[in-house]
Design brief:
145 residues; alpha+beta; Aminopeptidase; 32% helix
């Protein structure tokens, strides 16, 4: 498999739609097109795709925000998904490495990721990459607007 990491493009919509479905967020091509309208124009956000001869096989979404409490920026890995047929072949690791590189280049001093508690295999993946589960020391609150 000859893997290429590159920015997501508009012609990736069908593959991106399928990947989001595999992640547990079923959607439509039309909805993904609308999301790309704001993602592709946001200078603080990056969508990094992993593609091979068969097309898009993975995607990672990064957003960067300045921090007030310390000097530097915070990167958030908002989404990471690898096609279920390509998992276990270092595609996810390659995408996370690319996100970390982009976050450093953007001035990030921290990178965080959230993951639903039922995704235990994913949690082990992040631990292997050096991420720490800090839920015992930091609460996360969410409100739907």
């Amino acid at each position: 498999m000859d893997l290429q990491l590159r920015p997501i493009r508009r012609d990736d919509v069908p593959g991106l739609t399928a990947l989001l479905g595999q992640l547990g967020y079923p959607t439509t091509d039309a909805a993904v097109h609308k999301r790309l309208d704001y993602w592709l124009d946001d200078r603080a956000s990056w969508l990094i795709g992993a593609a091979d001869d068969d097309g898009l096989v993975g995607v990672a979404a990064l957003h960067v925000a300045p921090m007030l409490e310390v000097t530097g920026k915070l990167g958030r890995l908002l989404a990471l998904v690898v096609d279920e047929r390509r998992r276990g072949r270092s595609v996810g690791r390659s995408l996370v490495t690319a996100v970390e590189d982009q976050a450093r280049a953007a001035g990030c001093v921290k990178l965080e990721v959230t993951s639903s508690r039922h995704r235990t295999r994913t949690h082990e993946f992040y631990r292997q990459l050096g991420y720490a589960d800090v839920c015992a020391t930091s609460a996360r609150f969410v409100k739907t607007l």
